[in-house]
Specification:
By secondary structure, this protein is of the alpha/beta class. It is built from nine helices and 15 strands. An eight-stranded mixed beta sheet has the order 6-5-4-3-2-1-14-15, with helices on one face. A seven-stranded mixed beta sheet has the order 7-8-9-10-11-12-13.
């Protein structure tokens, strides 16, 4: 019996060491391991609002808007893992409540390195609360988005800012200043548009359509499929294979509008909506895009 006890005492430290090593490997896989699937763009299911998580090939993370409430935390936990509490970039496309309210919770629960905004002021309590939170974080880098800016997403992936193209500090129509980005990885691309309305779509067509800068495999439509966005001309310029709509089920606005859906269908694009499918994941290897969701 004594020999057995002595043997157990001798091997116990090695057993503990093995457990610690296994725990460290698990933590690495949950938190620090680079993505193996290339670029991933997730339209999070947060109800009536917008929140998109972009994960670059080397693990760089960018949250584009954070929805109308704390449900963004559930989406982030699912996509990043329960132990990962870091975001490289958090972005506010414009200061509407259904896009920014969740940032209150994100800035509390996550270590955010960079905060990007369009520079549009707002008088709401929610906007001012988020501004106060951001200003109180000493290590948070703040950037105002402008046309021509390129955001490095690692591994050859990047996001080009197409809009806004001017100072927005006196802008009162918040949707007009929505940050619009062309996300590119290899031969695949995504167009993220915030709540961009048709008049600004027309402006970007004049600036970028001739060079093919708007053409994208996936278009995240502006303003949740509102009839005031996603014109025929815009769809022709972007020429998407797939259109994603971030929208809450049975919302009081009637989004997505039947007219908008008809325009998309006439263009021949496939329609995916969070109200039907939950969170929608687009995974690109630089050549093709795979779509995944609970309902696909």
């Amino acid at each position: 019996m004594n020999s057995i006890r002595w043997t157990l005492l001798r091997i116990f430290p090695y057993f503990v060491l093995l457990l610690l090593l296994a725990a460290n490997v698990c933590i690495y896989l949950l938190v620090a391991a680079p993505l193996s699937h290339g670029l991933k763009v997730s339209i999070l299911n947060i109800g009536q609002g917008d929140s998109i998580l972009v994960q670059g090939p080397t693990g760089i993370t960018m949250l584009v808007d954070a929805g109308p409430n704390r449900s963004v935390l559930t989406g982030l936990g699912t996509e990043l893992g329960p132990l990962n509490r870091h975001l490289d970039i958090a972005m506010e496309t414009h200061p509407d409540a259904d896009h920014i309210t969740g940032l209150e919770y994100v800035l509390k629960e996550y270590q955010v390195s960079t905060f990007i905004t369009p520079g549009i002021p707002d008088k709401t309590i929610t906007f001012n609360q988020i501004e106060s939170q951001a200003n109180a974080l000493p290590n948070l880098k703040r950037i105002t988005a402008r046309r021509g800016m390129r955001i490095d997403l690692g591994g050859g992936a990047y996001a080009d800012v197409l809009h806004p193209d001017r100072d927005m500090s006196k802008e009162t129509a918040t949707n007009d200043g929505s940050i619009t980005m062309h996300v590119v990885y290899g031969n695949t691309s995504f167009l993220l548009t915030g709540d961009l309305p048709s008049p600004v779509e027309d402006w970007l067509i004049k600036l970028d359509a001739a060079d093919g800068e708007l053409k994208s495999d996936v278009l995240k439509v502006g303003h949740h499929g509102s009839k005031y966005s996603t014109s025929d001309e815009w769809l022709a310029a972007v020429n998407p294979k797939t259109v994603a709509i971030s929208v809450g089920k049975d919302n009081r606005y009637g989004h997505p509008a039947p007219d908008t859906l008809a325009r998309i269908q006439n263009q021949g694009a496939k329609i995916l909506a969070t109200e039907d499918l939950g969170t929608i994941d687009f995974i690109s290897d630089g050549k093709t895009i795979t779509e995944k969701s609970q309902g696909l």
